[in-house]
């Protein structure tokens, strides 16, 4: 599992971005990849899975 911070999450559109701790890489996250509800600034853990446009954060849960 990787850790990161929710940079942005649009609930009405169902997607956002997580900045990975350590590497500062941004990862796309879709509402279908969430375990917990997330808000901007939340610290989360997640896994990465190959999507249509690169790596997506999945199994996202708030720490």
TrEMBL record:
Q: Does the keyword Cytoplasm apply?
A: yes
Location of the protein in the cell: Cytoplasm
Q: Which Pfam families match?
A: CSD (PF00313)
Instruction: Please provide the record's keywords in A-Z order.
Output: Cytoplasm
| Entry-linked SUPFAM superfamilies | Nucleic acid-binding proteins (SSF50249)
Q: Which InterPro entries match?
A: Cold_shock_CspA, Cold_shock_domain, CSD, CSP_DNA-bd, NA-bd_OB-fold
| Segment forming the signal sequence | none
Q: Which residues cross the membrane?
A: none
CSD domain ranges (all copies): 1-62
| Listed SMART domains | CSP (SM00357)
- Where is it mostly found? cytoplasm
Taxonomically, the superkingdom here is Bacteria
**What PANTHER family does its record include?**
COLD SHOCK DOMAIN CONTAINING PROTEINS (PTHR11544)
**Entry protein name:** Cold shock-like protein CspA
